[in-house]
Design a protein that fits this description.
This protein is of the alpha+beta class. The chain has two domains: 105 residues, no CATH class; 213 residues, MetI-like (MetI-like fold), CATH 1.10.3720. 58% of the residues lie in helices and 10% in strands. The chain contains 15 helices and eight strands. Strands 1, 2, 3, 5, 6 and 8 form a six-stranded antiparallel β-sheet that branches. Helix 7 packs antiparallel against helix 8, helix 7 packs across helix 10 and helix 13 runs antiparallel to helix 15. The protein starts with a helix and ends in a 7-residue tail after the last helix. The relative contact order is 0.11.
Length: 429
């Protein structure tokens, strides 16, 4: 068995790597600028740059020697229009024209620090443009004038500039980039190293390590989800066995109707009804907080009620299907009582689908606890994740999503092992 467990854990490593990569792409590529999310769209360029530098967001996403900077936004004079050109000293659309000896001083948002390398790239044409560069446009090849790319690497300066010498120069594009330590000094590499060390960064809203916040929220989350899982499983199996034992009776039909009704009610309706009616109006339960075990009674009750209908219907179907098999008819033919056959044989052989269903339900319990913890003020992982979403705390949200994905992976491994343990027909190979 241990060899099989080790094998399944080894097979889970590529899955974990894929989960890490997907979470990185979702929050670093698709999600946009974390600095703008946290500091707001009206934050200054210097503040955004300092935020990115402190957390490694100023590096290339995957790899590269150079990355963009907020000190100078890339400008395309060919498509920018008269307004942008006028801001740079030209009054007409198209390329920015410099006469012989004229200098273009770049309007930086903040001075460049001297402790880093910076690369200024200017694309243009004309006799006054430095020759020896490479052509960058097939359209420009038809022009009698040459087109070049001029690059200059320097350290921190107040005002980087480009000067036309030996004639006029028409500038089409300007770009300023920041150098990296090496080619693989990237956001992905930093994120992978931190995840391997279980270092999820620092919360921007709480100013605490994310790992410490996860450990603090783990206890309340387990205190909520474990009772929901155990009670829901016990009650669902009991009712499903009762339905199967009394199949076709008024009790069976009544329980099925109740299950359908439970399945038809939205999760949020249960939460609002329980908190407003049972807790606030009637005073049977605490409305908010995590002071004692009484604060968990209502969330556990709601969590069990929301999953009861689906699970009872599913387990009832599994048990009824199992009762129509040949070995059950053989047991009845030998004179065994219906109760003994049901509990000793049918239930045992039906545990396989039950285990798979429980394993698949674990991640959804994690998601459900997010709403329960938020509504009832339970300081668990769900409560932490929802507050992080409201405050745009990217590191915390990313860590919570990663924990949920890893939980799903671990649940699949445990399901395989448990299935082989209860069912001798399943071989661990």
């Amino acid at each position: 068995m241990w060899r099989y467990v080790a094998k399944r854990l080894g097979q889970a490593i590529p899955t974990v790597i894929g989960v890490v990569l997907i979470t990185f792409v979702l929050f670093n590529v698709v999600g946009g600028s974390p600095a703008a999310l946290v500091l707001g769209q009206n934050a200054g360029a210097r503040s955004l740059e300092e935020f990115d530098a402190a957390r490694g967001y100023d590096k290339p996403l995957f790899c590269g020697r150079w990355t963009k900077t907020r000190a100078l936004e890339a400008v395309d004079f060919e498509t920018a229009g008269p307004g942008a050109c006028a801001a740079w000293g030209a009054g007409a659309s198209g390329g920015l024209r410099l006469e012989d000896g004229q200098e273009l001083v770049l309007p930086l948002a903040f001075p460049l620090p001297a402790d880093g390398r910076w690369r200024l790239t200017v694309e243009g044409r004309g006799p006054g443009f430095p020759q020896g560069g490479k052509k960058f446009s097939t359209v420009w090849k038809k022009s009698p004038e040459f087109s070049t790319v001029w690059k200059k690497v320097f350290h921190g300066v107040e005002k980087p500039a480009f000067r036309a010498t030996g004639g006029w120069a028409e500038i089409r594009r300007v770009r300023l980039e920041k150098g990296t330590r090496h080619f693989f000094d990237s956001q992905l590499a930093d994120y992978a190293r931190r995840v391997a060390r279980l270092d999820f960064g620092t919360s921007t809203s709480l100013n605490q390590p994310v790992g410490r916040l996860l450990r603090a929220g783990l206890g309340p989350s387990l205190a909520l989800t474990v009772p929901i899982l155990v009670v829901e499983l016990a009650v669902s199996l009991t009712l499903a066995l009762l339905c199967a034992y009394r199949r076709g009776s008024w009790l069976d039909r009544s329980l099925v109707a109740v299950c359908v009704a439970l399945m038809s009610v939205n999760y949020l309706v249960w939460i609002v009804f329980g908190q407003f009616v049972l807790a606030y109006k009637l005073g049977w339960f605490p409305v908010w907080g995590f002071e004692s075990w009484r604060n968990l009674l209502l969330p556990i009750l709601i969590g069990v009620a929301t999953g009861l209908g689906t699970n009872v219907r599913f387990y009832r179907t599994i048990l009824l299907e199992e009762m129509h098999k040949d070995y059950v008819r053989t047991a009845f033919a030998k004179g065994l009582g219906e109760g003994r056959v049901l509990f000793k044989h049918v239930l045992k052989n039906a545990l396989g689908p039950v285990i798979v269903n429980v394993a698949l339900a674990l991640p959804f319990l994690y998601t459900g606890s997010l709403l329960l913890e938020s509504f009832f003020g339970i300081p668990g992982l769900g409560y932490l994740g929802l507050n992080a979403i409201h405050s745009a705390d990217v590191d915390v949200v990313r860590a919570v999503v990663l924990v949920g994905a890893l939980l799903f992976t671990a649940a699949n491994v445990l399901a395989d092992v448990a299935l082989a343990w209860v069912d001798p027909r399943v071989k661990l190979s």
